Amino acid sequence: MSPTNRRPGLACIITFLLLYGAAMIGCAPADPPPPYEKMTLSGSPYERGLAHGKRFSSKIRSLYTQLLTSALLPSLNRERPDIAEVLFLYQDERYDDGRFSYEVLLDSAYALEESIPEHYLEEIRGIAHGSGLPYGDALLLNTFVDSVLGVRTMQRYLSQWHAPFIRSIEIVPGDDSSENGAEESDAWVQDPFEPLFHAHFVGVPTSSSIRIVIEDAPGVRAENSDEDEQDPADEENHIGVDPESIRIRLDDELFTKGDDGIHIELLDERGIRLAVTLSPPGGLPPSAVIAIGVEAGNLIEIHDPPPTRSRIMRQQWIALATEGLDVTADEIPNSGGHDDRFPPPPIAFAAHGNATSDGAMRLAHHFALLDAGTLHRHVVLFTHKPDDGIPHVTVGWTGLVGGFSGMNAEGLVWSVNHSDTLDNPVVQNVRRKLELLSGGLPITMLGREVLSRTQDVDAAADLLVEIAPTVGWNHLLAGPGGLRVVESDGDISGEGDGHEHVYGPGAVDDHGRRLAAFTDDDIRIASHYISNADDYESGLLGFDLPPQRYWSPFWSRSLRAFYLLGVHVSDKIGHLDSDAMIGILRTEGLYDPRDSMNAVVYEPEDLRLWLAAGTVPATDAPFEAYDVAEALRGTQ
Amino acid sequence: MRLESMISSPFSRPLRAWRSVCQIIIAMICLATAPATAAYTETAPQGVFLFENSVIFSRIQGHWHDDGSLGSLLEPVERYEVGGGLQGVLIADVDARFRVVVPMLLYGITDDISAFVGVPVVLLTSINPDLDWIPGDFSPQIGRAYSEDDFWEWAGSMGQPKPGPWEGNRNTLSDTVIGGRWRFSDRIRKQLPDGLHLAVSAFAALPTGEQPDPEEIVAVGTDSWSLHSQGELGLHLSADYDLMGLMDERVLVGADVFYEAFLPRTYYSSTGEIHPLLLNERPYVGETYRMNPGDFAGIELTATVTAIRGPARETWLTRRAPGLADSQPPLLRLSFTYGFTGVMQSRWYSESEIWNWDQERFWAPGYKNILGAQASISLLRLGVPLDIQAGATSLNLLPGRNVRAPEMLTAAVRVPMKFW
Predict the structure, then answer these.
(1) Residues of A in contact with B283 (CB under 8 A)
(2) Size of interface A-B (CB pairs under 8 A)
């Protein structure tokens, strides 16, 4: 008899426990993927693209599917009715069945292909071959940001053209104002209303009311000009400002129809114009800067595409200073008020010399645009070692040849934020061909050109002026030669004014105030033009195309972010180091909690960077150091 | 063995069911055995067939999450508008119901070794996703945050339908189970205390069940992983102990320690054919993907009391064996069960590391805390060779982690048969 037969129970128990123990070893929890990837690319452009495509094949395709197929393309399809109303080409059945956005972006990608240097096209071919993505889709992936921004620029403008707008603003002093020596009331009227970088009125009596006349859009009235043909029962034909949609913010306080302190009066039978009079209970605070936010929609009901909605004007901020505050209007920035619904745009700032704690140069950048719950999971820190050109790093995404910031081996840092402008190739192509085709060099490749071809900020700025961009951009450069901002647009009118909008910390406005700095050693940008404030003013197909500040929904938010950034930078002047800059990037109100994509602090003199990515907002992630010098030497 | 069967997992993944049913059958084999033994170690007498048919009604409305909270069966789906932030979050307040019938046959090879086969059939699965919506960020384009209606209007214009109630798996075979038990304590009787019985059991599931339709958001298959009630290979070590004289009645306690493994499997990914915005992972996941489900390991404890012993009169069943009448199963027994099942990490293997993680984080290591109660009526003492059982099991009463939280009602009848 064998031992097992003598002790069958013991054998069973031992066998069971051995199996049990062995199996339990494999029960460790799964590990999440890294917050971002790192990759070094060398060789010919095609070889670099192929390596990129092979390594990130799935991530490239998931980026394409999740961002484009499932989010951007459906979202952009919504804008077809507005666009096709003006550009009849897009009423063609080729654009039916939800294919509008894909076809438009693909057309635009192939139009941009003509402007893209061959070495980037080779790299894109490599990415396509490596990832299995069709070349057209890989090209689209590398150009969609530029195309979409161009198309969205048109769409944003058209939306505002159809939406209510502020016709005029008037300060109506209270009865006791004249006794206090208040100015004549005609000094407190602005008609027509102008969006300003600074305060609209100063010395406003505290007993004053603010009267704002809001008018339905010229676009809506043009469409409904023949009143005899109007069918009152047809909701589509309802025009006029919707009193229920009026939202007036007085700093943190919100006033809507029916609230104490707000009176809404129709100025005509159909409500095309209405006047909103704001008389805050208790009056305005003395010696204070006041921000007034205005929003309104009209009575139009747009059903296609769903959901049903009206036309909403952009949030417009107005700054006032009340009596007792001894300032001039241009001293008061129109910095708006806090409103969670409108997140800040991307920002960047740089400092060196006396502005930093150790004199070393640093540039901080927080980029936000269109994460859509996807891009933050596809971030890659690429080290590019081209066969010719300067080695460099970019913070980019899988499938894209570049990013929105980077640094080269010469210690030159480039970063960029978009800046709405109608001075762009899409507008030009609409004018010439009645098509939404982009032009110029896509931004990610423009950045690569700067990093691979220039060694100092002056050369970089020259290159940025020389190469036609796709849309409006604000570039911030730091490195040999100091700090520079380049505010670029498409210059489709051929004014050749690009160099006029390259400036450093010393640049001043008409009042002698620095444009974007506190000292000679710091500078900052957001997402609006400062030097290039009159970026464009022209006509197109019967539309008046105004400068950015009149229509861009980003303009007011950008002014606020720029102002808040200034507050925090000025607090730290002389003490700015990487930790302090990271702290500023993490300040609420300075990062977009929805579409944040990455945040970086560059130390060009040490060839090092600190990157936060992989979360939304990116600033919630730890900033991890990356030794660019090591990477460029090939040991990292 | 454990009475833990629960049909869980409504969606494309696991539902699980009938494991205990085979165990119940084994427990019922007390016919003609003298004396009767307890549930975990019972076997059929040599040459006896036992046929059992069980009907299981299961309902699942929640999932125990990693933080210990009881939430939705489906992970919330965040929808973003490019450049416009979060449109909103889709929350599914899922109500999933299952009807399963489990015919089983058990045969006594020897008095201490039995073999069994079970062929579960899902009669119907119905799932009501009852989608809810948490509005997201303010959308400047429409002047408000997207409401639920806004979102589905928007999605509908892109060809994405709102998932509605789903019914399927009508009369669909699940995985067929074969197995056996050896009550080895009979061989070492003299070395053990009176009343203690030990057994080892093993089973394997044959892949006769169906996988869920990859294109359906709210759908579930009928294979073992979909049912998520037992593994595909199981090994159990069990003990029963008779506590004589307690409460003037017989009290049985039992323990069952087990390990059950799943085999890796391959699934097709979704193409977006039905849900172009919500279910379209094929371009980056690949046409198929593999997954290795997390195995189960745990213990179950049962206490059984005799509520009504019943008469010990001679019937046509016991006429030939004087003295056997009193050893027949009690008329009514009540069982109370607690089970703890550790569930190991399930792993996905596709072309997308990100997608793998999105699945894996919902199926991280966890555990089930299972409470059950069962009533068994045996009519043998009355001369009727029929057993009837009714039971209830819940994973809702005690918190679990990273597992479904089903509730289940089971009814079963059993008939012994001897052909030679």
Answers:
(1) 61-62, 64-65, 69
(2) 172
Interchain CB contact of A9 with B (< 8 Å) = yes
Selected for mutation to probe chain A from B75, B77, B82, B189 (highest A CB count within 10 Å) is B82
State residue B2's pLDDT score.
27
The span from the CA of B387 to the CA of B385, in Å, is 7
Chunked into runs of 10 residues, chain B (420 residues) has average pLDDT values of 29 28 30 45 89 94 92 87 87 93 94 95 95 92 91 87 94 96 91 89 95 91 88 94 66 93 95 92 96 94 90 74 74 94 96 94 94 92 88 95 94 85
In CATH terms, the fold of domain B19-417 is: Porin (2.40.160)
- CA B306: distance to chain centroid? 26
Q: How far is A377 from chain B (nearest CA, A)?
A: 8
CA distance A416 to A390: 19
B296 vs B227: CA distance, rounded Å:
13
The confidence score (pLDDT) of residue A432 equals 87
Decide: A460 and A488 in contact? Cβ < 8 Å: no
How confident is the model over A432-467, as pLDDT tens digits? 888 989 999 999 999 999 999 999 999 999 999 999
**What pTM, to 2 d.p., does this model score?**
0.87
- The H or E element spanning position A449 is helix A443-453
Give the three-state DSSP class for A262. strand
Contacts B159 to A, Cβ<8 Å: 98
Question: Which two tokens mark A299?
Answer: 């009575």
Separation CA A237–CA B195 (nearest Å)? 89
CB of A487 closer than 8 Å to CB of A532: yes
Q: How far is CA B400 from the centre of its chain?
A: 15
Q: Helices A135-162 and A443-453, interaxial angle, to 10°?
A: 120
CA dihedral sign, ordered A483, A489, A494, A495: negative
Largest Cα–Cα separation, chain B: 89
Give which of A297, A528, A287, A536 is closest to A420, Cα–Cα.
A528
Per-domain residue ranges for chain B? Answer: 19-417
What 8-state DSSP symbol labels residue B366?
E
pLDDT at residue A177 tops 90: no
Question: Å from B105 to nearest chain A CA?
Answer: 25
Q: Which of A171, A168, A209 is nearest to A191 (CA)?
A: A168
User: Residue with structure tokens 């599914």?
Assistant: B92
Q: Please give the backbone phi and psi of residue A205, each rounded to the nearest 5 degrees, phi first.
A: -60, 145
ipTM of the complex: 0.85
All structural domains of chain A with their residue ranges: 164-331
For an interface test with B, give the residue of A595, A596, A597, A615 to mutate (most B CBs within 10 A).
A595
The C-alpha angle B50, B113, B24, rounded to 5 degrees, equals 45
Can you tell me the distance from the alpha carbon of A289 to that of B345, in angstroms, rounded to the nearest whole number?
58
Residue A567: both structure tokens together: 């507050």
Question: What is the Cα–Cα distance from A547 to A537, expressed in whole angstroms?
Answer: 6
Residues 6+ apart with CB under 8 A from A389: A452, A453
Alpha carbons A520 and A517: distance in angstroms, whole number: 7
Selection from A168, A248, A247 nearest residue A201 by Cα: A168
How many residues does this entry show for chain A? Answer: 636
Sheet bearing A262-266, strands edge to edge = A189-190, A165-172, A209-215, A273-278, A262-266
Nearest CB partner across the interface for A306, out of B85, B156, B280? B156
Chain B residue with Cα closest to A76:
B82
Contact in structure between A530 and A487 (CB atoms under 8 Å): yes
Q: In Å, how far is B86's CA from the nearest CA of chain A?
A: 7
